[in-house]
């Protein structure tokens, strides 16, 4: 199954969100993608895109970003400029042929970029090219030197290193001499190379061709295609790198998510099995369970699956784990897909676990979200972003099966593989609960995700001797001499209690 | 035969250096002004290479660009102005009185 996933090599695992981290040198020899003399690249700051492109867009060259309306072209350009201005001291020029500066600034504000503030600081220059065919009459030959001078002046004024032309093909609707225009655009792209700027040129995709007027014939260094489609009433966006001259890159179609922090491309991180394997243990928060786990608990940085039917006590096991982490002074993050934070703290209080103080002390953050609120990819991005922001030692996802309602089993499994990989690289110990169907073959429904887990704890109802009891067993625990017992499991007002010996 | 009299015309020709196209445009324009607007026009030639900031300010993309500043509204004719008919249309001088 793992081989079916897009495998990205040469990307950096940790610190995927470069907007929040100090400047980092990239390029020369940072991965298998780089040759002896690797291409210099300009990081976009777009989570995931810099990984797929092994560092960003080709520096001092033009990249064509094409896609249909609403596919995120303008946003990609904006984010590229804002990132350059904010993180790399590379001012940018945004030459818009579609949106007036005010609209552009307003739209960008909704994804967290204040273009007006950047402009005021001289880090950004917005220029709007208004083309009104009714106002212009053509008589004889002309060239686009006016545009060259205009752009050149803008670049020189703020010392721009990055340029976005959005969407330059609008020229064709404003001017009638298509032949002259094409020649001029060709000249423009050549000229931009000599200006020492990294450029993003957007193009509208129509039908089978990438751009309306064949810009792809001139822009051959790097071509990125954005695609938007609707399936089962859900909009999904995809990104694909069609061409990247002189550089390796991810070749698959990658999910693209636009949220309040801009664009993110999945996978945000690489899929590798290179993380350190800590030998330190962390307590499950239940002494008897620790005992079953070789007397020590879970490995730090490992993944734990707790599966069981409804009401079998999965959340309680999770809450014990979080409680123990907070007692050690570690930060915990709890993703709740079925209950509100208040509901969770109230329910846990009824079994003797008080999580509220941890929330107040800033050690625990409960993030509740209906699974159907977003698509699977958006959930994943939201989780990454929160983990990145919160920097937890322990993460609980309760229940992971809720996500099955927004994606296929394979998709969820791929998503989990990436998420687990990401957390392992940060040595986060992570616990997933999984809801299994009552009466069904409990183990079967978990098979999909269990292979990704280091430890698998099964909670089951056991009927024996005319009694119905809860039982707990450890199905597997990698690297731990675990107990093979099935022990009785009870929820008391003092929390989870395990029965003395085996149930039978 | 007499065209509208009254307010003076203000025309601006934007060029980028002394290129053949800009010289042609200027010559064409002068000839046209003398025949159509004699005695009631002001012509200003702006070289964008010397005043690059005006390209953005006056919304210039193509050169040469002829702009009718007055009378309003602003109208633009781009090209070397080799087609007199088109220039007359562009400037709004084509409508007979």
Task: Tell me what the structure shows.
The complex is a heterodimer of chains A (504) and B (97). Chain A is an alpha/beta fold. Chain A has 2 domains: 42-131 and 146-265, 3-Layer(aba) Sandwich (Rossmann fold), CATH 3.40.50.300; 281-502, Rossmann fold. Chain A has helices at 49-52, 73-87, 101-109, 115-120, 145-158, 170-174, 178-194, 287-292, 314-327, 341-350, 356-360, 376-390, 409-425, 442-450; strands at 41-42, 57-58, 62-67, 92-96, 124-128, 136-138, 162-166, 198-204, 222-231, 234-244, 253-259, 262-265, 281-282, 298-299, 303-308, 332-336, 364-368, 394-398, 429-435, 455-464, 467-477, 486-492, 495-502. In chain A, a hairpin with a 2-residue loop joins strand 9 (222-231) and strand 10. The longest helix of chain A has 17 residues, at 178-194. The model of chain A is unreliable at 1-36 (pLDDT under 50). With 97 residues, chain B is an alpha+beta fold. Chain B has one domain (9-89): Glutaredoxin (3-Layer(aba) Sandwich). Chain B has helices at residues 20-36, 53-57, 84-91, and strands at residues 9-15, 41-47, 65-70, 75-78. Chain B has a 4-stranded mixed beta sheet, with helices on one face. In chain B, a hairpin with a 4-residue loop joins strand 3 and strand 4. Chain B starts with 8 loop residues before the first strand and ends in a 6-residue tail after the last helix.
């Amino acid at each position: 199954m793992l081989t079916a996933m897009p495998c990205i090599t040469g990307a950096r695992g940790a610190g995927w969100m470069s907007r929040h981290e100090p400047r980092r040198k990239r390029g020369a020899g940072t991965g298998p993608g780089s040759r002896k003399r690797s291409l210099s690249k300009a990081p976009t700051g777009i989570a995931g895109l810099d990984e797929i492109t092994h560092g960003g867009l080709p520096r001092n060259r033009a990249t064509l970003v094409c896609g249909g309306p609403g596919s995120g072209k303008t946003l990609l350009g904006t984010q590229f400029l804002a990132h350059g201005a904010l993180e790399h001291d590379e001012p940018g020029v945004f030459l818009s042929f579609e949106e007036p500066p005010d609209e552009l600034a307003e739209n960008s504000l909704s994804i967290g970029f204040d273009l007006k503030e950047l402009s005021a600081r001289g880090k950004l220059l917005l220029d709007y090219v208004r083309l009104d065919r009714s106002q212009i009459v053509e008589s004889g030959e002309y060239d686009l030197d006016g545009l060259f001078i205009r752009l050149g002046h803008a670049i020189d004024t703020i010392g721009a290193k990055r340029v976005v032309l959005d969407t330059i093909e609008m020229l064709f609707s404003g001017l009638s001499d298509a032949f002259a225009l094409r020649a001029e655009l060709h000249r423009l792209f050549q000229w931009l190379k000599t200006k020492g700027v990294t450029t993003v040129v957007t193009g509208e995709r129509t039908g089978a061709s990438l751009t309306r007027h064949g810009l792809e014939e001139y822009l051959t260094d790097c071509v990125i295609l954005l695609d938007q489609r609707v399936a089962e009433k859900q909009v999904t966006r995809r990104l694909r790198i069609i061409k990247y001259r002189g550089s390796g890159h991810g070749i698959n179609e990658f999910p693209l998510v636009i949220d309040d922090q801009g664009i993110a491309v999945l996978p945000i991180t690489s899929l590798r099995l290179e993380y350190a394997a800590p030998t330190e243990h962390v307590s499950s928060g239940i002494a008897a369970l620790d005992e079953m786990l070789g007397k020590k608990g879970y490995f730090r940085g490992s993944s734990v699956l707790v599966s069981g039917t409804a009401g079998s006590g999965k959340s309680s096991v999770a809450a014990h784990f979080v409680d123990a982490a907070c007692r050690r002074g570690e930060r915990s993050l709890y993703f709740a897909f079925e209950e509100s934070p208040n509901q969770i703290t109230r329910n846990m209080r009824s079994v003797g676990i008080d999580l509220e103080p941890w929330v107040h002390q800033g050690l625990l953050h409960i993030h509740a979200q209906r699974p159907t609120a977003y698509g699977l990819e958006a959930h994943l991005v939201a989780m990454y972003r929160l983990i990145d922001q919160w920097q937890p030692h322990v993460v609980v996802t309760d229940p992971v099966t809720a996500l099955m309602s927004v994606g296929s089993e394979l998709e969820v499994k791929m998503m989990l593989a990436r998420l687990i990989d990401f957390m392992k690289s940060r040595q986060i110990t992570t616990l997933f609960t999984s809801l299994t169907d009552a009466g069904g073959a409990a183990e079967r429904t978990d098979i999909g995700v269990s292979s990704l887990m280091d430890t698998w704890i099964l909670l089951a109802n056991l009927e024996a001797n005319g009694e119905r009891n809860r039982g707990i067993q450890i199905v597997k625990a990698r690297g731990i001499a675990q107990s093979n017992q099935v022990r009785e499991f009870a929820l008391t007002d003092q929390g989870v209690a395990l029965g003395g010996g085996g149930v039978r | 035969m007499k065209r509208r009299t009254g307010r003076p015309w203000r025309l601006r020709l934007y060029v980028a250096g002394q290129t053949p196209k800009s010289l042609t445009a200027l010559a064409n324009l002068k000839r046209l002004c003398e025949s159509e607007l004699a005695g009631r026009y002001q012509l200003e030639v702006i070289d964008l290479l010397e005043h690059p900031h005006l390209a953005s300010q006056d919304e210039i993309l193509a050169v040469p660009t002829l702009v009718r500043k007055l009378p309003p509204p602003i109208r633009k004719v781009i090209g070397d102005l080799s087609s007199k008919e088109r220039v007359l249309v562009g400037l709004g001088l084509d409508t007979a009185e």
